[in-house]
Every structure is written in structure tokens, then in C-alpha cells.
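Per reviewer request, we include the raw input and output of the structure prediction for the construct analysed in the revised manuscript.
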Amino acid sequence: MRKSGLLNPLVLLVCWTGIVVAGTCVLVETTVRQHLALNFSTTKGRIVRSEIGQGSMSRRGVEIEYTYAVDGVKYHGHRYRYDDHNVSMEWESTLVEHPRWSSKKIYYDPQNPADALLEPGVDGADLLLLLFALSLNVLTFILWRAMFARLRENFHVQPAGGVRILKQSRETRVPLGDTSAFGAAFYTMGAVAFVAAFPVVIVGGFDPSMRLMQTTWAAVLAAGGAVFVWRLVRNWSGIYDLRINQNSQTIILPQTAGRHKPLSIVRREISGVSLQRRVSTGPSGTYFSYLPALNHNGSEAESNPMKLITWGWSEAKARAFSQWLSQELGVEFKGVEEEKPEGLAAS
């Protein structure tokens, strides 16, 4: 990562998170209340006002008022749904269906008769908004995870960069998988939700049918479940583990960095551990990431080190891990080297 102050990104991330979390909480709350309203009691009421509301910039939402009575007590309601100003709602058609002075069924909470609405239940627009919210929350989680990692490394670099080391009697195992099964499933659901939202809007607009949204959500959950099982099996199989065997004096490189399967090499053929610096250029500047790699004797691999991970780490984490690995193998730590284009190929 590029060396720069974290204060401005942190402030922006806090603001972004506040907007996303607040919006998600409101959305979840209204959706739950809409569902619970299906169990409300009903009575007859009369519409006394029915018009499109006025927002701060333009007309927005519906403004409906009605009167009704429960056990001889008169009430004055003003809620069509718990999200009357939902931008996906067809306001004009709603007003046509609820003209002034018409008689309509009123749904009210028997424990609190003043809490009433005209349209209970969850609709396709609610599920569509939840679909967008899922992708935004996954993105926010990813940003916070990266921020916490940077903050932690700025204040304290953990032994071996915080990488988990499993010491056994005959073998040392180092899991180097990019993500956990839960993480992979969570990220997949966010990505599928984001991609699926666009065809849903194209086919069903911003107020799609419940059937379309139920099918879409089933696909999102199925994709997450499938990736969870797939990643769990692969993680448990150990194919992403760096394995140092004391008895056979061999090292098994993980199935990462373009390798199609784990690669076994003789330990004495390792001449050193290096840190490959990867340069990435984006719209906001140049960024650096670092990949621990093994230097191999007597082959072209000497000039093309065998990288141990697919995606780069921060310099602090990668350096701490590389130094631990060089000590573990009893070889030289060669420091930082620029990654060569051919180094991206499978070793």
C-alpha cells in the first residue's frame, strides 16, 4: 500500500459507514415492520387526504390521511406504508387507488391502535433495496477490514506478520489462503447481489414482482452457500498451506500464485527468502504491495522467485513474515526486490 496518512481516509470511511449503516437500519426496520403488520387487526376507515408529498427539492412520496375507529375511539392515521417516501413506489397509481373520501380497510396494531397503515406486507421493492444494501455493506466491511489491518500494523507488527503458524512434531504448516470460507461466501453474496440488481431493474423496474425478487435472493443465497462449501473443503484439504517437513527436509509450496497444484521442493535447494514488490497504478496514484517468495538454487527460478501468495500484503506484514521464514529455513533474507512481469506466471 502507498505510504500516506490514514486520517483523511479514516474520516471518509467513518462518514461513508454512517450513511450505509443508517440507511440499512432504516430499511431493515421498515421491512420487518411491514412484515409484522400482516398480523394487525383491521377495521374500516375513510380517506380524508390523498396527494403527492413535497420534498426539500421536489415532489416526493405520498401524503395520505384517514380516520378510523377502534372500540368506539376515533383515530387519525397518516401512514400508507412504513416507507411512504420510498422512491420505488408508484405514487400516482397509489393515489388513484386511494382517492379522497373513499372507504378503505385499515390495518392497526391491537396493542397500539394509533399505529396503523393501509398497505402491510413486504413487496418486491423492499427486497430490491435489501439487495443493494447487501452489496454496499459487504463493500463497507472490506474497506474497514483493510483499514484495521493498516492501523494495527502502524502501531504494532505481530510476529510473522500475524500469519498463523501451526507447529507439529514433524511438520510446520502455514495457512496462506486468501480468505476463510465465511469470508468467501460473504464476498460472493455481495458481488452476486450487486451484479443481479441491474438485470432485475431492467426486467422489473424499481418495483419488481415478489416472485422475481424471491428467485433473485434464492440465487444470491445459493451462490454464497456453494462458495462456502467449496472454500471450506479446499481450506481443510491444506492445498493453501506452506508445509515445512523436518523429516524429509522438503517444502511444499501452496496452490497459490498461479500454481495449479502444490509444489514439493528440496529444502537445501532454497538459497534465500525475498520480498517481491508489486507496483499497481490506479486513478488515485501508485500503490505497492509485497509478496514473500523463495529463491531457488540451480535453475531459472533463481531469477524468478517462487511467490507464496497470490495477492500482495502490506510491506510491514510481508517483511515480518519473510524474516520469520528465513530464520525458520536457516537461509538469508534477501530484502525487497522488484517483481518482474514473468514472476506473475506459475512457478
